[in-house]
Design brief:
Length: 157
C-alpha cells in the first residue's frame, strides 16, 4: 500500500481495487522509533517464555511514550549484570555495557583456573573469554544482562 494525499490533512492508504480506503493516523512519527519499538517488542516476546515480563513491558511502554513525544529525552540506562554460579549469585549495576563486560571478564578471569587444561590460558579478547568460559560451564553457571531505564526524576531540579 502506498499513501494517497487528499485535500486537507487526511492521508489514506490506497488498497486493492474494490476494497475500501482507510484513513491513516500519521500524528505519531512511528517510522522514527521503529527500531526501538521492534527491539522492545522482541524483548517482551523473549521474556514471555520465561514468565518475567515486568521489565520488558516497562521498556516497551517507555519506547511508546518516547515515540509519541511524551518523554523529553531518554534517561541513561543502567545495566544489571546477574552472575549465577554454584556458590550463589552476584548482582552488579553498571553504568554502561562496556563496564558490565569488564565486570564479567574479571569474574571469568578469577575462576579461569577451574577450566580444563586443554582450554589453555584466558584469551585477552574479553568477549571470546566470556564465551569460552560459559560454553564450558553450560548448565552449571550463567549470566544475564538487562538494560534498565532510570525513570526516576531525582536528578531533576
Amino acid at each position: 500500500m502506498k499513501p494517497v494525499k487528499t485535500q486537507g490533512y487526511l492521508t489514506l492508504d490506497q488498497c486493492e481495487v474494490g476494497k475500501p480506503v482507510f484513513p491513516m493516523d500519521m500524528e505519531i512519527p512511528i517510522y522514527k522509533g521503529c527500531g526501538k519499538l521492534l527491539a522492545a517488542a522482541k524483548q517482551v516476546v523473549s521474556n514471555w517464555e520465561q514468565g518475567d515480563l515486568a521489565a520488558a513491558v516497562r521498556d516497551l511502554d517507555f519506547c511508546i511514550k518516547e515515540i509519541e513525544g511524551k518523554v523529553a529525552e531518554r534517561p541513561r540506562d543502567v545495566i544489571l549484570l546477574v552472575i549465577e554460579f554454584r556458590n550463589g549469585r552476584n548482582f552488579l549495576a553498571c553504568e554502561d555495557m562496556e563496564r558490565a563486560i569488564d565486570e564479567l571478564y574479571e569474574f571469568v578471569e578469577e575462576y579461569w583456573h577451574e577450566m580444563p587444561a586443554d582450554v589453555g590460558q584466558i584469551p585477552s579478547d574479553k568477549l571470546k573469554a566470556i564465551e569460552l568460559y560459559y560454553k564450558e560451564k553450560e548448565g552449571e553457571e550463567s549470566y544475564e544482562m538487562q538494560a534498565l531505564a532510570l525513570l526516576s526524576g531525582r536528578d531533576e531540579d
